[in-house]
Amino acid sequence: MCKSAILEIIRENKPELIPLPDLSVFHHNISETDLIADFIRISTESMSNVVNIINSEIQLDTYLKEFIAKNYPTATIFYDTLNPKENLDRIDFQSKTVDLFIAESKLGVSENGCLWLDERILKQRISAFACQHTLLIIDHKNIVPTMHQAYQKLKIEETGYGVFISGPSKTADIEQSLVIGAQGAISNTIILI
Known about the structure:
Blueprint: H1 3-12, H2 32-46, E1 50-53, H3 57-71, E2 77-79, E3 98-104, E4 107-109, E5 114-118, E6 131-138, E7 143-144, H4 147-153, H5 156-159, E8 162-165, E9 170-171, E10 179-180, E11 187-192
Parallel strand pairs: 1-11, 2-3, 3-6, 4-7, 6-11
Antiparallel strand pairs: 4-5, 5-8, 9-10
């Protein structure tokens, strides 16, 4: 049987089209206070993140300096979006251990505590995964309730590659033993503005 005959048989025997499900149930209104509270709760309880809240972007610089001085005083740090003087344009992740990766996410999801990073943020795709620790920053105004709403905001055709990060890497594949940091960062800290 030739290809065109097979395609004709398929066309004649297509099932009836059924309407797509109604997703309006996912667009419920939720107060900003509840949205932020849910994001923090899920991010810390379910995803093992540490969430620190600051009041404004003005405090961010001070907070970052204090956080780094206290937790990573001698660390190699890779900034992808904040562009401070110490910014390293390209890092050879094979020859250099990066202790802390810092980036600012433009989209977070309350229902699963994850943050979106795309190629505008990740100058090197590997940067969020080849480091020991991640520190992600998000403005509370950029958090949406559900993944459905997050996907409506994403513009993959403009940004290309992107990834949702929900917490430190974990696996229990080997002998049912939990290993943290097996395929990525050991810890994830979120600064919520």
